[in-house]
Amino acid sequence: MVSLIVISLAYLGIMLICAKIAEEAFRRIGLITFVGPILAGIFLGSGVFNIIKLNDIISFITSLGIIFLLFLAGAEEFEFEGKFSINVFLSLILEASVPFSITVFILYFMHFSNYLILAVPLAMSSAGPLTRMLMDVGLTSSKVGNTIFNQVILVEILFVVLFVIFQDINQLLITIIEVSLVLVFILIFGRFISNILEKIESYFKVREIEFASIITLILILGYFSSIYKFNSAIAAFFLGILLKDYLKDRPELLERLHAFTYGFFEPLFFLGIGLYVSIVNLNIIALSILLFIIIISSKIIAGFISARLVDVEPKVNAIATSVKGGVDSSLLLTALTLGYINNLEYSFSILSISISALIIPIIFQKVYNIKIKDIKIKIKLSQEISNLQIKPLYVTCNESLREVISKITERGVRGIVVVNDDMRPLGYISVQTLLEIDPELYEKIKACEITLEEVPIEYERVKVIDILRKFRETERPVIAIVNNKGELITTIYERELMRFLISI
After folding, report:
1. What does the longest C-alpha to C-alpha distance in the chain come to?
2. How far apart are CA 357 and CA 337, in angstroms?
3. Which of 243, 360, 365, 449 has CA 20 to 30 A from 129's CA?
4. CBS domain: which residues (predicted)?
5. What angle do CA 364, 144, 259 make, to 5 degrees?
6. Which residues does 224 contact at the CB level (< 8 Å), separation at least 6?
7. Domain-located, residue 217
8. What predicted TM-score, i.e. pTM, was given to this entire model?
9. Which residues have CB under 8 Å from 359's CB, separation 6+?
10. In terms of domains, do 394 and 294 share one?
11. What pLDDT is attached to residue 201?
12. How high is the pLDDT of residue 426?
């Protein structure tokens, strides 16, 4: 008989490749990618074909996905200052109370015994998918994006606390004290985390010590958070915020965390969500759609009202604060595994969340394009690259490696072009090159004092299709676009170009 560990290896392999294929399929048809793995999980699990059998090993590994996803969200996507205006807190009250009250009433009317626990994941918003959604429209570094994100993260934290309280409402005071202690510990101890990591880095010369230290911190913090009844994913988010500056100086470390999270844990998490769905039938689908309509309607109403408080365009705020599909799914899964809800309740609830995760970002992109962008350009592969008006990214010879790292991190790229005083490209600095240099020397070394890699160069009249071919031929992270005098006009990154073409 095959052991649990051995069969789990096979299951994880099947899950990972199916999740990535589903992500790619959804990306190509212009849909939200993480919904693909959820649907794949429904088909692979007991919901349809019953190919993957859930066990403790699968459940544990898939649950790590949302933890690492929110850690990266806190570390790099948003300028989170930890300060909120009174209007943001008022919007929190609206965006939490309206959907929660309506959802509780509906579930109570439908005679669900644990309607309070079930209402929490259904009524809350989710910061993880919001991160991706705001990235797609370029709002992550804007005032609007941060205002929306601040609202959602506060709603998410509030509902996490409510979820803990509703597990044992008789221990209300003790629960509030325990959750408060976790937050205080993170905020106080967080001031010393970067210093501790830097000392470990300088003392131990073991390869990958920084990466191992970060992973250790995330896992240990998750352990203590869970013991004291606080969601480990939210704790990881706060840890990411506290380590933002530390990671900005180490782009190579962020690259590894990206691969670690987006290449393995995140797709397994979203596929794992679908594995818990019971047999899908018309009744479950109909109930899921009905619940989706009720929940999203209530959240959009709350978002419309609160938009005036936070000075965000009403339609944009209403749709963006309704996003779901991250920690809410995790809490729903927790409620199932702890026995607070049954498989039927989980199935129609997770399907309603999945429908929301699929539809809301599409609506948001449409609303954002209509209300925020004045002109919508139709891009053709045959047109000249200069017509796209992509912002150039480069450094001069006199800029330090610290400034190089800052620009690379801000744009989220893997290399940056170096130009001379005449704006002529000399080459590019890659993340891999920076990895080989002692971080203590970043302030002292200038961009032109290290070996530059050859950068592909094209003229401004080059076609979009030719640029795409160039990326495939050279496998370089960046292409320099110059005029007839050889002066840099702009820089093109493949990932940015693809996102630009898809979003516009």
Report:
1. 76
2. 22
3. 243
4. 385-445
5. 70
6. 182, 185
7. yes
8. 0.64
9. 292, 296
10. no
11. 67
12. 92
